[in-house]
Specification:
mainly alpha, single chain
Length: 223
């Protein structure tokens, strides 16, 4: 199983194209700026989504290595999702709410984002395996929210929507297409059992590496 350079290039350019087109369409509908500015803005948000995606891939592997358990790492991600939901609601209300606005009104945006993230996570888990649901949910919710933060500075609804569309489109495409780039030698997609086997082998390999390092340290101390 491998993702070669050609596939990485395909993922980058296809994501950039899809995200930019989606952002350009929503920008033109909103009538924000000229054509060039709309395209550039959409492309910038798409690039931010790409950086967030590859950053999460690194964080995910780090989390698995640190907690040494898929179940524990997933629980940690669920806790972070809950905090992110509250933060998006609370801090927007704290900084931008008027005297007659309640916090409940500021729960609409994080709720809609959560619903969308749940749908995408379900599709990801359906295409791969059930263990992919929470990581996919975390990426679509928490990572998208972090990428989205610069759009909240002015509390301009048009700008917020203009930013979230390319972010969501790009992140959805990256998440749902990544496993399809992992092809078997016969050209078929890995089965659920194969994904589980590779995941187990990865943990066992890291465990052996740690044991080897530990034994080397003991050997050096005893020498």
């Amino acid at each position: 199983m491998a993702v070669n350079a050609r596939k990485v290039v395909f993922l980058f350019w296809s994501t950039l194209l899809i995200g930019t087109v989606a952002g350009t369409i929503i920008g033109l509908i909103q009538g924000i700026g000229g054509y060039f500015m709309v395209i550039v803005t959409a492309a910038l948000w798409t690039v931010i989504a790409q950086m967030g995606f590859f950053a999460y891939l690194t964080i995910h592997r780090f989390g698995l290595g640190m907690f040494k358990s898929v179940s524990l790492w997933n629980k940690v991600q669920l806790v972070i999702i809950a905090f992110a939901f509250f933060d998006l609601m609370f801090f927007r209300h704290y900084f931008f709410a008027t005297d007659d606005e309640t916090m409940l009104g500021y729960a609409i945006m994080p709720t809609l984002l959560l619903v969308y993230a749940l749908i995408v996570a379900y599709l990801k888990a359906k295409d791969t395996n059930r263990h992919a649901f929470i990581p996919a949910l975390f990426f679509m919710y928490v990572v998208t929210m972090i990428e989205w933060i610069p759009a909240f500075t002015g509390n301009d609804l048009n700008f917020i929507i203009n930013a979230v569309v390319p972010l969501l489109v790009a992140n959805t495409w990256q998440l749902l297409v990544l496993h399809r780039l992992h092809e078997m030698p016969n050209g078929r997609q890995p089965t659920v059992e194969q994904w589980s086997k590779w995941e187990k082998e990865g943990f066992e390999e890291r465990k052996r590496e740690k044991e080897t390092k530990k034994n080397r340290k003991k050997a050096r101390k005893n020498a």
